[in-house]
Amino acid sequence: MFWRYCKNGTSMTSAISTTEQIRGVLIQFVSILLSCFLLFYIDSDTEQVFDLFEFGNLLALAIYFLPTFMISMVLFAFLAKRYGVRNGLIRFLVIGIPLSFTLIITMFLCMK
């Protein structure tokens, strides 16, 4: 693996940075997915875990997940550039998911 980076002229620091960024995106993906399922599980209509995989909940998952993931990618890119990948990821988890859910829920409330 090291030799491949030396051949292509890519330094190991940029390869490590790219690996950290990919890992950060995967952590974002999983954390947002789990947060959406937790939000749906808290719902009063959900009585069992299998209720999370009904058509209506999967449609709501797409409605909540896609905007949250897009907002988080922009926020993570900004925070990672400013604070580094690891600190940016921690700040994203604390700020990004609640902020995104709040924006989406507010948008739905304004539509009524």
Automatic annotation (TrEMBL):
<feature type="transmembrane region" description="Helical">
    <location>
        <begin position="92"/>
        <end position="109"/>
    </location>
</feature>
<feature type="transmembrane region" description="Helical">
    <location>
        <begin position="62"/>
        <end position="80"/>
    </location>
</feature>
<feature type="transmembrane region" description="Helical">
    <location>
        <begin position="21"/>
        <end position="42"/>
    </location>
</feature>
<keyword id="KW-0472">Membrane</keyword>
<keyword id="KW-0812">Transmembrane</keyword>
<protein>
    <submittedName>
        <fullName>Uncharacterized protein</fullName>
    </submittedName>
</protein>
<keyword id="KW-1133">Transmembrane helix</keyword>
